[in-house]
Amino acid sequence: MVQLALIRFEAACNNSPTARNQGIYTGLPICQSLSHSTSVRAGSAMGKKLLVDVDCGVDDAQAIMMALAVPDVQILGISCVSGNTTVDNVCKNVLRVLKACQRPEIPVFRGALKPILGNTLSAGHFHGQDGLGDAPDPKAPGLDRIQKEGAVAAMVRIASEHAGEVSLVATGPLTNLAMALRIDPNFPQNLKGLYIMGGNTDSRGNSTMCAEFNFAADPEAAYIVLNEFLCPTYIACWEFTCHSKLPWEFCDVWLAQDSEKARFMKRIFQHSMDASRGGCFQKEMVAGDGFVSCDCYAMAAAIDDSFVTAFHKVAVSVELTGTYTRGMMVLDTQELLKKKHKAFVMEQVDLEKFKALMMAALK
Amino acid sequence: MVQLALIRFEAACNNSPTARNQGIYTGLPICQSLSHSTSVRAGSAMGKKLLVDVDCGVDDAQAIMMALAVPDVQILGISCVSGNTTVDNVCKNVLRVLKACQRPEIPVFRGALKPILGNTLSAGHFHGQDGLGDAPDPKAPGLDRIQKEGAVAAMVRIASEHAGEVSLVATGPLTNLAMALRIDPNFPQNLKGLYIMGGNTDSRGNSTMCAEFNFAADPEAAYIVLNEFLCPTYIACWEFTCHSKLPWEFCDVWLAQDSEKARFMKRIFQHSMDASRGGCFQKEMVAGDGFVSCDCYAMAAAIDDSFVTAFHKVAVSVELTGTYTRGMMVLDTQELLKKKHKAFVMEQVDLEKFKALMMAALK
Amino acid sequence: MVQLALIRFEAACNNSPTARNQGIYTGLPICQSLSHSTSVRAGSAMGKKLLVDVDCGVDDAQAIMMALAVPDVQILGISCVSGNTTVDNVCKNVLRVLKACQRPEIPVFRGALKPILGNTLSAGHFHGQDGLGDAPDPKAPGLDRIQKEGAVAAMVRIASEHAGEVSLVATGPLTNLAMALRIDPNFPQNLKGLYIMGGNTDSRGNSTMCAEFNFAADPEAAYIVLNEFLCPTYIACWEFTCHSKLPWEFCDVWLAQDSEKARFMKRIFQHSMDASRGGCFQKEMVAGDGFVSCDCYAMAAAIDDSFVTAFHKVAVSVELTGTYTRGMMVLDTQELLKKKHKAFVMEQVDLEKFKALMMAALK
Amino acid sequence: MVQLALIRFEAACNNSPTARNQGIYTGLPICQSLSHSTSVRAGSAMGKKLLVDVDCGVDDAQAIMMALAVPDVQILGISCVSGNTTVDNVCKNVLRVLKACQRPEIPVFRGALKPILGNTLSAGHFHGQDGLGDAPDPKAPGLDRIQKEGAVAAMVRIASEHAGEVSLVATGPLTNLAMALRIDPNFPQNLKGLYIMGGNTDSRGNSTMCAEFNFAADPEAAYIVLNEFLCPTYIACWEFTCHSKLPWEFCDVWLAQDSEKARFMKRIFQHSMDASRGGCFQKEMVAGDGFVSCDCYAMAAAIDDSFVTAFHKVAVSVELTGTYTRGMMVLDTQELLKKKHKAFVMEQVDLEKFKALMMAALK
């Protein structure tokens, strides 16, 4: 049985009425037709400028390393937010990743300590207590390396200085983004694009019953971002990342590369791999066992416009008041909300490109 | 891409670990293994006793006619509930269906005028204002043919008189069922099985943003039934019925049969067909255009134990407080609710059997 | 400072514009002006017929005994509902009260085991585990004395047999009443009046943060009753009963009467008195320490039309979805709900009459 | 009937057990006993430093003018927030007030355009469309006079520069305050005190059914502030301001003063007075007709420590999810939330002092 509302590349190229009616687009037509796409956005990453907002657990680390490995991608700053672990741990983890990649010049900013309402959700230590596999590095850089400027102020400033040129990749709770909007209402329109890992399409929760962790950790922030960020918004939801998993065999090869980066990754990833493969987190998995590096799908989409081969273009929002569903992303497939702004919800990707980006990350 | 959590008959017969871990069952193993199944429950419908609770729109009518056409099925009573139309219209519609099938002896009971909280949800007149395609019959039986005994009292009495032998098929809002439980706490355990058309598995709404009509029309009743009916419970959800649709070509052949029943169906179905095929309801459809007789899937499952070939065995409940998700069925795939009672959520059916049952209904 | 929206008898007799504008009525004008009041409803209780619905804790017992002591009051039946204790304990407690008053002929009916949604709220054992002070009576009547007819069916039948003549006094969760409405939509209009102990006027909770026990124990039932019972509805809310408390000195005199009834009351009341006077429940009390027999205010209002001297006439409803406020009664003072039906929320009573009714109850 | 939980000065001085048990304090004992009160906080306003956060309607203007008229009070900055009118109108209104008082040197900062969730609540134009009585001034200062620094950044900076010395008076929705906390977690503890006009004590709404405007306009912000600002917090709730109203006769004398300020006030107040006295807003009023300058009670409390003569010391929070009660302040009188931090909810004030402060404001 083919997954609902998924049209393959070939069908869409035929411009079938069904595809158009259901608001489904594939990679190529989007590149050609989207009105916001004025600059060159080919498969190459020529001159891509990124802001990266993370709650740096292991898959955030993988996503940062993926971006650092692409020659034409420029990371203007990395902002930290509480999520997988405390914001101080997140800051330390980002510094460690940058050190492992020998890129200490990239500025790192401390952001929100807590979600908007202040009630912290436990991440359940999938990534270890420190968010990076509890594999401490005695020579890790200190917090004095963090910028004095706060994350929200820095995000607003950088987006303004590079208005229309910078894409924001958000792989944690969206607290900093929501704050940036309230500080500067122009923040979203200064962005070229927004790439989010978070949310659900099919009500399959991985932390609460129906909600994905990043959205469940700060539902109000997710609500604000999905409703008020009117820039082009691309979302890698939890179920999508599960369906796009890689085999563990790939992971073995990936980690076996003879490089400092690969050895670093092996150390910090061991904890999560043990947890995953040991079956503790099987109930959360939507499509069975496998290597799901959630945040990397959002990053890959930001890096390479041809990575995503099918989107569901649909208005989205977030449930705030549900007993079982608080934090769940909702899709307005019936267009009951009458929203003009639609998000691009990722449906299908080029896994060969993904593997290539992943391999490069640890070279 | 294969739909999540769906294991085909063959795989399950192999008793693959994946299938067992994910609580997925197929028709045959269920018949053999379920502890509650003491009587003969083979593909034949030998001696099946049914109570049918309907909000008789056109697909309820189709479901009733399907059951009436199976020789060994005995309908002990039909209880009516407000839903697709007012309860008085529902009563009239059921009487018309029984007349068309020349089965006026089956007792019909009037049930709840309103959902539990009293706030009626409009059915949007998909089935016409009168619920039966606005194709009035001047010779239709009058409401004096309705039993004096109320639906809830009758359901409680009949279930008690045939304790352990009667299956309840519910194709409307679950108001009467919830009331019956509060009147007689033994009501659920007197049932051999409960077959429901209603609810969602993937947050795809057909009346509100995330909720299916029968559950959205009385979320409290659905909550009560899913949480307190501890009898074997089989659910045909909205997305499942969409994925299991028949081609319109089948419908044409079906209606073209030379019989009074087929001509009756053609008259009452015209309105819905025009609405469906005209595209007005396309946005609601989950898996594209087609002939989706929702209620018939629940009825077929009650009639023929071998009809359903794959279930998802999972604890379920209903969201009551969500802004976008009120009335949405939730699946506790992570077992966070610690509920012992699991429902059998239909995943895959034998469509050839379904076509045969459908054809027979109008013969 | 005079309590808001409270106009004394004298002011109202002057028909001051303020009083009329604010929908405030006093006892006498109501008797003369209310359109539903066709029969004689003077201070005397001539021919009063009552249905009493209780979750028989100690103050329910006091209310029943108050009614039994008034010559012209006829109790047609007592229906039991889960609340202060299990419905079986409630049934036993009512039988004990009737035995203590030598009125075993009054029929007692078993009602709902659970509130509508099925989630039971603990009453915190203010009235003891058995609801009647944990002072067991080895000679107490057995449950075989309970009627075979269920409470809801009996309430519907009795109200229908005495249409327009019977007042319903409800001193527990309103589950049975809500059920009776769904079974017989005419049930409310068959009632002459409805007298409720329950709900709040000022968001002062006594079981949850903002909700009174009877409403918090079944918020859906309270919602249904306040929104769909269009008969004259009189409500003794929690804060009102606190403000109308009697001094403990009165209680001492009351219990010191030389009668079987007084000795019975002393036994069953000891537990609650110890709890109250010991300070354990001080935080719940709205207006300081004192003897608050909540249910008796609703009963006294039903018995004697001149008992209540000031009402607030206002549309009311119940909050169902609040985190802190679920079960809280809400007053629509700004008329935002546009409801025609207004309740009479008790504001001031004749305490001398109350004392007289109380004293008579134990004579 | 005396208002609940109100103990007069005399009673409290006697240290009556009731007063202590119920957490009620009067002005003097608070001054003497509160541990946070290290500096001189006598009736004089010697050296008081204020930050003022407003959604400048007419009563905000009155509050600002009250503070400007007290010699020893120093306003370090006025931050603007959307509420009674748009944030740009608020900015203009504050500039007009400062001009009318010849205090153009006080810095004014633009804050949040929208509440946290982004959904604006209409203020119903009680203060006119422009928030200041629709009495435009062609010579009003332009928005170029607004500081370039944003309100949140300025609040954080000023509180840090004057740590422990500055009191914050908030008379609009609490958006800016909540933002400041997330930008700088130390913000609350840098404040000497927080004085809020907003919220309810008795569920009497003035904009929605149960909620006061400032809290209803941004419930999330109110929730954050009441739960995370651990500085001494004084709240002038809606019902309290209604009970503490002044007679319209006072208002007439007040406005009749021969001064520029009085003439300015008369112009901008005419619209609200017409609305109030014309009866359009009578239904909202809790304690009958009168002159209720809500924001001035919070300001007077910040200016003069002896102004408030009775508080209710109680933990408070805000309902976020209620259907009728969203935005309602809740009092945890039963201490169910186990919160250590208690707010000082104003119960009784010295109205003579209030009149004197009011008169001085327009001199």
UniProtKB/TrEMBL annotation, chains A, B, C, D:
Residues 51-355 form the Inosine/uridine-preferring nucleoside hydrolase domain. GO terms for molecular function: hydrolase activity, hydrolyzing N-glycosyl compounds. SUPFAM superfamilies: Nucleoside hydrolase. Belongs to the IUNH family. This is Inosine/uridine-preferring nucleoside hydrolase domain-containing protein. It comes from Synaphobranchus kaupii (Kaup's arrowtooth eel).
